[in-house]
Specification:
Length: about 450
C-alpha cells in the first residue's frame, strides 16, 4: 500500500495489464507458431519459422512445424506471421530517481518501503512497454530488484549499481543546502541515508564505498567523474575525482570481476577516467574526435542518450546547464558511429516520472543517424553485450539480446515488421502481442 501523501504523481503512470505471470500457473513449454524472427543482429527478418520455449530458454527454432507428444503440456501462440524479437534493453535507467519527483524524494515521511512500492509501479509499466532488462546506474534499487526477482514486484531484469559514488561537490553530492559535510560534522545526509549516493573523498573512502556496493550485489559500479545538469553544485565543465581516487574504484571493481562506468561529458573528465581503467562512459556529449578515437581503440563503451532541451516544469538552472549537452549530442552519435566506438543506448529519466511513458518513443530519436536495423540491434543485442561486461557479477545467467537456440526467453511478439516500420515499437499496448521474460508470459493478446 502506497501512502496517500506519495501517490499523486506516481499513480499517473499506471498502465493497463493484460496478463501477469503471478496470476496463473505458467506452462513449461510455449510454442510460437508461424512467426518471423528479428534475431537481434540481422538487417532482415527470417522466413516463417516455429519457436519452442522450454522453461526459460529458447529450445528449438524450426522451419517445419514442431510437434510434441500429445501428453506434453504446451501453450501454443499463433503468430500469423508476426515478428518475434528480443526484449528491449535500456542500459541507463534510475528506477527510483525516475519514479518520483525531487519533492517526493525529499519528503521526510518517505521510507524505504515507500520507495520500493512506487518504483515497483514503474518497473511493472516498464516491462509492459517491452523492456525486459535494464541497467540501473545509480540509486537505492537493491530492495526493488530483490522484490522483482522474488516475485513480489513485476518488472524487468535489473543490473544494479547501487549508490552512486561521488566526491564532495560532485554530481552525486545531493545534500540539501542546510546539510553539512559528514566528515566535519559527523552526520549523514538524507541522500546517503537513503543509499542514493555515497559522498566519498580520498582513496580509502572510495574503496569502502565501492566495496559496500559490491557487498550488496552491485553488478557494476557507477562513479561520478564530471559535472552534471541535474545537480546544483557542480558545473558541467568540472572534472571530478583525482586519478588515484578513480583507480581505487576500478581496482576494487576488477578484484570482483566487474567494471566501473562513469558519468562524464567532457574530454578532460573522460580521459582521466580512461587512464584510470574504466570500461564505460555514460553521456559523453562534449567529447572531441581524438578522445572518441581513443575509446574505439581501447574498446571502451559509450553509453549515451538523446536528451531533449526542455521538459515541463524543468528547473531553470538545469535548463541552462543542459544547453551545451543538447548541442553536443547531435555531433556525438554520428561521429562515434563513424569511428567504430562501441555504442549503447539508454534514457536517463530523472525526477520526472511522466517521462517514463515516452521510453519507447525516445528510441526513435536515433533515427537521424541509424537505420531501423541498427537501432533495433543497439537496443537489443548491443545493449546486451554491455550488460555482459559484468561477467560473474551479472545477476542472471544466460545469453540475452538475441533470438537463437539456447538463449534466454526474453521475447516480444510484434504485430508487424519493426524493421520496415520502426514506429511500431512506440505503441506497445497496441502492437506488442506477447511480452515474455524468462520464459513467462506477462502479456498475451495474440488470439
Amino acid at each position: 500500500m502506497i501512502p496517500k501523501h506519495l501517490t499523486r504523481l506516481s499513480m499517473l503512470v499506471l498502465l493497463p495489464v493484460v496478463c501477469f505471470a503471478q496470476q496463473q500457473q505458467e506452462p513449461t513449454r510455449v510454442l510460437f507458431d508461424n512467426v518471423r524472427i528479428f534475431d537481434g543482429k540481422s538487417d532482415r527478418l527470417s522466413g516463417p519459422v516455429h519457436v519452442l520455449v522450454e522453461g526459460n530458454r529458447i529450445a528449438r527454432i524450426s522451419k517445419t512445424p514442431i510437434i510434441l507428444p500429445a501428453v506434453t503440456s504446451m501453450t501454443v501462440i499463433s503468430g500469423r506471421g508476426a515478428t518475434l524479437m528480443p526484449g528491449l534493453i535500456d542500459v541507463h535507467v534510475h528506477l527510483t530517481f525516475g519514479a518520483m519527483t525531487m519533492a517526493q524524494l525529499m519528503n521526510p515521511k518517505l521510507t524505504g518501503k515507500d520507495v520500493d512500492s512506487i518504483a515497483g509501479i514503474q518497473a511493472r509499466n516498464m516491462l509492459l512497454r517491452g523492456f525486459t532488462s535494464v541497467r540501473d546506474v545509480g540509486g537505492p534499487v537493491f530492495g526493488l530488484k530483490a522484490g522483482v526477482d522474488g516475485g513480489k514486484f513485476t518488472g524487468p531484469r535489473i543490473w544494479p549499481s547501487g549508490a552512486t559514488i561521488s566526491q564532495t561537490a560532485g554530481h552525486g553530492d545531493l545534500r540539501m543546502p542546510h546539510e553539512r559535510s559528514r566528515r566535519y560534522f559527523g552526520r549523514w545526509s538524507r541522500a546517503e541515508e537513503m543509499e542514493a549516493t555515497f559522498i566519498a573523498d580520498g582513496r580509502d573512502e572510495v574503496l569502502t564505498a565501492t566495496r559496500e556496493n559490491l557487498r550488496k550485489g552491485a553488478s557494476q559500479i557507477k562513479v561520478m567523474a564530471g559535472g552534471g545538469t541535474s545537480s546544483a553544485y557542480d558545473p558541467v565543465d568540472v572534472t571530478q575525482y583525482t586519478l588515484d581516487e578513480m583507480r581505487a574504484a576500478v581496482e576494487a571493481a576488477e578484484d570482483w570481476g566487474t567494471y566501473v562506468t562513469v558519468h562524464a561529458y567532457t574530454t578532460r573528465a573522460v580521459r582521466r577516467a580512461i587512464e584510470a581503467g574504466v570500461k564505460c562512459i555514460e553521456h559523453g556529449q562534449l567529447l572531441d574526435e581524438a578522445t572518441l578515437r581513443l575509446m574505439a581503440a581501447k574498446g571502451i563503451w559509450l553509453s549515451s542518450q538523446n536528451l531533449v532541451a526542455e521538459t515541463p516544469d524543468m528547473d531553470p538552472l538545469r535548463l541552462r546547464k543542459r544547453k551545451p549537452v543538447i548541442e553536443g549530442q547531435a555531433r556525438l552519435w554520428p561521429l562515434a558511429k563513424k569511428l567504430g566506438v562501441k555504442m549503447a543506448w539508454g534514457t536517463d529519466f530523472l525526477f520526472e516520472p511522466w517521462l517514463n511513458m515516452e521510453q519507447n518513443e525516445y528510441i526513435l530519436k536515433l533515427k537521424p543517424w541509424f537505420t531501423p536495423a541498427e537501432i533495433l540491434k543497439m537496443v537489443t543485442y548491443d545493449n546486451a553485450q554491455l550488460l555482459a561486461l559484468s561477467g560473474l557479477r551479472s545477476p542472471y545467467e544466460g545469453k540475452l539480446g538475441v533470438v537463437e537456440e539456447g538463449a534466454l526467453a526474453d521475447l516480444l511478439l510484434i504485430n508487424g515488421d519493426p524493421l520496415a516500420q520502426l514506429d511500431l515499437i512506440t505503441k506497445p499496448e497496441k502492437n506488442f502481442l506477447v511480452i515474455m521474460k524468462d520464459g513467462k508470459l506477462y502479456k498475451r493478446a495474440d488470439n
